[in-house]
Design goal:
This protein has 31 helices and ten strands. Helix 23 packs across helix 24. The protein is elongated. The N terminus and C terminus are likely disordered.
Length: about 750
């Protein structure tokens, strides 16, 4: 009984294995075609250079259709708003816009403090840029406005260029807050204009690809470090401390040290207010997560907290009785436009470029996520223009630089938002608050805003989990993440980003210089060639070496490619060539010495030949005989020299003394080398020279070299670089590795090409 129970599963496994084998055999395919080198492939496929209209010609074309296309491209609202389905989408956009506005109000007030500005300027930055993006943006779901990372970057600029110490009043050494705030607003608005100019300029020249140099690990490491910077910057509001302004490298360390040193001076009422506000916000967020499926809209925890904290502060008198700092005067109405200060451009240009790139990177990454989720396309260049115009116009109305918020974007999507009509509705709601309701929040404690900021950092602080996931997935990406995080913490946000980008690019160069080199073997009964170190069944074709690099070959790794090739082939090519040349030189010297000795012997023999002289002849006859004898000797000597040289050449030809076998040198165990060039995407001059040297060196040791799987642009670059000549022709290039292997097996020592060879797969 037990035997039958155990044999049942075994029989099932055997049947499954047999079924899989049969299915695999049914899926076999057989192809019979001529063996193709590059020349034959071009003739068969009728290859020719691709023709097309140059881009500059289309740019210069002028027509009604092109003008309309340009207008719709740079003002997308004209394309989608006339087709807006009011009945289907308006209700969802209305609810979404109100939900986002409810979040935008407390975040705008809080992030203005983070930027070192009065809270009302956070409301301005939540109105003007949002409405401008509604007109020019292409993403339907991102929520443009204040964002923690952008605010802390602006705050580092304002606090470094307008520190509290520069506005001390002499009698009692108090800070002139009005003058300080005015200077910082001027700095922030000018910075916003510069950021907008950078973004618009880069977008118009289609420079949106610049964000590709900010990889995902780099952006996540950077935003995590920025979240830590934001957290530390809010400690002074949580504990009610007055700290000195610090900026530049190691400013975070100095701030933490100063907070620890001044902890005994903390205001108890401020700490209690911040802790209570933080706990209430966390509980509301947990409740929203639990009741998400039952609630049509999430509970507006931040708005309820603002209203409740303002009412309690006004009723209890937190400022006067417990020393809790409050927001203070919030003017009603819109501020008049203000021209930027050109004198500040030189001081702000570096920070402006950094903020422009970071803001765009955050916006486009979120925009592409939502676009993929909902099946539409986001134009990266137009997004750059839209963000730039938002910052440019906002800077003229005393706003600071903005981007998009991750938390608000998720709320805008989850509450039914379909288009940027939701953004326009939220901006109109903020406008109502600016015009009529802003002054009601004058008694709002700053500690509540600090608690709101810290609680909203949860999403970015959770990115510390990337360390564990990247350790398992890709440790090079983990190194980029950690380097970005540490550099941003220690060197501040602007220098940290520059160091992170340089580090990631250097790491990319290093990875290009250290690709995976492999010798390929043939998988049995297939035309597939794989690394023999990874595939146990892959076997090397006798007499043929197939070499492949996992990265493209260029000036940075051309020498490393050549060295790795010679090492993996198992032959010390350079030493073998050196020994061959040395033996050939010795052989040549020996041949010359033998010819010289033979010539000397022949000359000595001819000189010793006796001439017959008759005693009875006259003196004139003697002289005549002597002259004739000397001419005969000279002619005889010359003919013997010619015979000796001819004999030497015939002997050399017969013996072929220049081969490795004739010289007594070890011969390679393969007669053909095939370079798999499928990974090459381009070819530079250094690469061309390196390939020519490879052909020359291996032909010197009697190994034929072939190339396989070259892409058409690479072949075109080979032709342009005059790579092909009498010794290297297109008949050394093959359509695939298998074609090259078959040709090499049928022509182990010959350079002749037969066009009738057939490859069977």
């Amino acid at each position: 009984m037990g035997l039958s129970e155990t044999s049942g599963p075994r029989d099932t496994q055997v049947l499954l294995a047999m079924t899989e084998t049969v299915e695999l055999r049914r899926r076999d395919y057989h192809v019979e075609r001529p063996l193709l080198n590059q020349k034959q492939l071009e003739e068969l496929g009728r290859w020719g250079p691709a023709t097309g209209t140059p881009h500059w010609r289309t740019w210069l074309q002028c027509s009604h259709a092109r003008a309309r296309a340009l207008l719709l491209q740079y003002l997308p609202v004209l394309a989608w708003l006339p087709q807006y389905p009011v009945r289907e989408w308006l209700l969802g956009d209305l609810l979404s816009g109100l939900s986002v506005a409810i979040m935008q109000l407390p975040q705008g007030l809080a992030y203005a403090l983070l930027a070192g500005l009065p809270p009302v300027f956070g409301l301005y930055s939540s109105f003007y840029p949002v409405f401008i993006y509604f007109l020019f943006g292409t993403s339907r779901h991102i929520s443009v406005g204040t964002f923690a990372v952008m605010s802390v970057m602006v705050g580092s600029v304002t606090e470094s260029l307008a520190p509290d110490e520069a506005f001390l009043q002499s009698p009692n050494s108090t800070v002139d807050e009005a003058a300080r705030d005015a200077a910082r607003v001027q700095l922030a608005s000018t910075l916003s204009v510069l950021v907008g100019l950078f973004q618009v300029g880069l977008g118009l020249v289609h420079f949106g690809f610049v964000v590709t140099y900010l990889s995902e690990p780099l952006v996540r490491g950077y935003t995590t470090a920025a979240a830590v910077q934001v957290f530390v910057s809010q400690l002074k509001y949580v504990f009610g401390l007055h700290l000195r302004s610090s900026s530049g490298p190691l400013s975070l360390i100095y701030t933490v040290i100063e907070v620890c040193r001044k902890l005994p001076q903390s205001v108890i009422g401020t700490i209690v207010t911040a802790v209570v506000a933080g706990v209430v916000l966390v509980l509301v967020k947990l409740l929203n997560d639990k009741l998400q499926r039952y609630l049509p809209l999430p509970l507006p925890g931040e708005l309820l907290m603002l209203i409740g904290a303002t009412g309690i502060s006004y009723g209890v008198g937190l400022k006067h009785r417990f020393g809790v700092d409050v927001v203070g005067n919030i003017p009603t109405g819109l501020a008049p436009p203000m021209a930027p200060s050109p004198q500040l451009f030189a001081k702000l240009v570096g920070n402006a470029f950094t903020i422009a790139v970071v803001g765009f990177a955050i916006a486009i990454s979120l925009g592409k996520i939502f676009a993929l989720r909902h099946g539409y396309r986001v134009d990266s260049n137009q997004e750059l223009v839209a963000l730039g115009l938002s910052n440019l116009v906002g800077g003229c109305f005393q706003c600071f630089p903005v981007s998009c918020s991750m938390s608000r974007s998720l709320v805008q999507e989850s509450t039914g938002g379909n288009t940027q009509v939701a953004g326009a509705i939220s901006s109109l709601f903020i406008l109502i608050i600016i015009l009529k309701l802003g002054e009601l929040f004058q008694d709002l404690p700053k500690a509540v805003l600090a608690a709101t900021i810290i609680v909203n950092l949860k999403g970015m602080l959770k990115q510390f989990a990337d360390i564990c996931s990247l350790w398992k997935a890709n440790r090079v990406d983990l190194l980029i993440w950690l380097a970005t995080f540490v550099a941003t913490l220690l060197l501040n946000l602007d220098l940290g980003l520059a160091v992170a980008v340089v580090f990631s690019l250097l790491l990319l160069v290093v990875r290009m210089q250290l690709p995976h080199y492999s010798v390929l073997g043939q998988v049995p009964d297939t035309d597939i060639y794989r690394d023999m170190a990874e595939y146990l069944e892959a076997k090397e074709v006798p007499g043929v070496k197939v070499f492949r690099s996992s990265a493209t070959m260029c000036f940075a790794n051309a020498e490393l490619y050549s060295d790795a090739l010679k090492q993996r082939c198992g032959v010390d090519v350079d030493r073998l060539i050196s020994r061959k040349k040395k033996l050939l030189r010795k052989q040549e010297l020996k041949l010359k010495r033998l010819q010289k000795e033979k010539l000397q012997k022949e000359t000595a023999v001819s000189m010793c030949t006796t001439t017959s002289i008759h005693v009875n002849t006259s003196d004139g006859d003697i002289d005549s005989n002597n002259v004739d004898g000397s001419k005969a000797k000279q002619a005889s000597t010359e003919s013997k020299l010619e015979d000796t040289a001819a004999n030497g050449q015939e002997e050399a030809k017969a013996a072929n003394p220049s081969t490795l076998k004739a010289l007594g040198l070890p011969q390679p165990d393969f007669h053909s080398l095939i370079l798999d060039m499928g990974a090459l995407s381009f070819m530079d001059t250094v690469c061309l020279k390196s390939l020519k040297n490879i052909f020359r060196d291996f032909q010197e040791i009697e190994v034929e070299v072939y190339m396989a799987a070259c892409h058409t642009p690479v072949v075109a670059q080979l032709e342009a670089g005059q790579f092909f000549d009498a010794s290297i022709t297109k008949q050394h290039l093959f359509a695939s590795v298998h074609d090259a292997v078959i040709f090499a097996l049928q022509h182990p020592r010959s350079n002749q090409v037969s066009p009738v060879l057939v490859t069977k797969l």
